[in-house]
């Protein structure tokens, strides 16, 4: 059975004009898109800015309702569920954003931030939750003393580690990472990608990894889907994307990114 499945998914923004209210321009941010994700799979999602990646992420997480189409988690259609009904599977589907700091309550300590989903979910008592927070901090490579710090006291990399810790606190099955390391420098990006790789092995996670970093995708992802104007225009294996891109848009996308690993460069580029 698939872990997550999207069938003919669309999301149209904007509204029809009515009386004196002018119509907003309608944008099909996601346009009849279908995809399937297996348990423990790591799917990369690339595409230029505005191609609908973040909208797709929100639909797949049940944070927004599609205009049409369906989303299924382990075969269960949750398209029509309300946000409160989504609680049934919220512990299984988590997200890491590009700017974790912006999503943290600035009044919360690290312990409270990572503990928040545990409290919302009514997990154990305060002692049990504190233990889970400590274990989770260790999993993301931070010492226990960070529990008492405030997020604005931490570096960008540490803030993203806390964002990851919050996402794994409930031990989910899927994490959607929406450009999680875009604001970090290249060596830190590598470290963080390795961390996700380790967490996958330890916790049996699946990822949907949205990024502009094609060299990370080719190393980290089993499969890559390329989005353009709300649709998936190409799918390749992670390594295959750089070597055998077919769609002209994908070729342009690859050409626009400096490739660090020369082995991944196409032969004609080497001349
Ligand atoms: N809440 C919204 N209201 C109106 N338009 C939106 C909204 N969210 C996204 N869009 C539009 O949908 C398109 C896709 O956006 P987005 O999903 O953010 O793309 P990406 O993450 O690939 O950059 C863009 O044209 C964007 O302007
Ligand atoms: Mg986006």
UniProtKB/TrEMBL annotation:
Q: Which Gene3D superfamilies match?
A: P-loop containing nucleotide triphosphate hydrolases (3.40.50.300)
Keyword Zinc carried by entry: no
**What's any GO biological process attached to this entry?**
transmembrane transport
| Single GO molecular function | ATP binding
The record's annotation in InterPro entries points to:
AAA+_ATPase, ABC_transp_ATP-bind, ABC_transporter-like_ATP-bd, ABC_transporter-like_CS, P-loop_NTPase
ABC transporter domain sequence ranges: 4-254
One family name in Pfam for this protein: ABC_tran
Q: What are the alphabetically sorted keywords of the record?
A: ATP-binding, Nucleotide-binding, Transport
Q: Which family does it belong to?
A: Belongs to the ABC transporter superfamily.
Q: Which protein are we looking at?
A: Peptide ABC transporter ATPase
What is the phylogenetic placement of the source species in the record? Bacteria, Bacillati, Bacillota, Bacilli, Bacillales
């Amino acid at each position: 059975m698939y872990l997550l499945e999207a069938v003919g998914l669309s999301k149209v923004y904007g509204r029809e004009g009515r009386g004196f209210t002018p119509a907003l321009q309608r944008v099909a941010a996601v346009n009849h898109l279908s995809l399937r994700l297996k348990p423990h799979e790591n799917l990369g999602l690339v595409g230029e800015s505005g191609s609908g990646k973040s909208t797709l992420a929100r639909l797949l997480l049940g944070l927004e309702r599609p205009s049409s189409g369906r989303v299924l988690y382990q075969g269960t259609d949750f398209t029509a569920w309300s946000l409160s009904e989504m609680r049934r599977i919220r512990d299984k589907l988590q997200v890491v954003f590009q700017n974790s700091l912006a999503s943290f309550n600035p009044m919360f300590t690290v312990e409270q931030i990572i503990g928040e989903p545990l409290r919302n979910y009514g997990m154990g008592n305060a002692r049990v939750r504190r233990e889970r927070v400590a274990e989770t901090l260790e999993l993301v490579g931070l010492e226990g003393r960070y529990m008492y710090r405030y997020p604005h006291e931490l570096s960008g990399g540490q803030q993203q580690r806390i964002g990851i810790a919050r996402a794994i606190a409930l031990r989910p099955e899927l994490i959607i990472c929406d450009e999680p390391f875009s604001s970090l420098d290249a060596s830190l990006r590598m470290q963080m990608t390795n961390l996700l790789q380790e967490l996958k092995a330890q916790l049996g996670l699946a990822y949907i990894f949205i990024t502009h970093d094609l060299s990370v995708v080719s190393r980290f992802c089993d499969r890559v889907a390329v989005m353009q104007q709300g649709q998936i225009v190409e799918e390749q294996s992670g390594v295959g994307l750089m070597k055998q891109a077919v769609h002209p848009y994908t070729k342009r996308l690859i050409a626009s990114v400096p490739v660090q690993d020369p082995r991944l460069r196409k032969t004609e580029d080497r001349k």
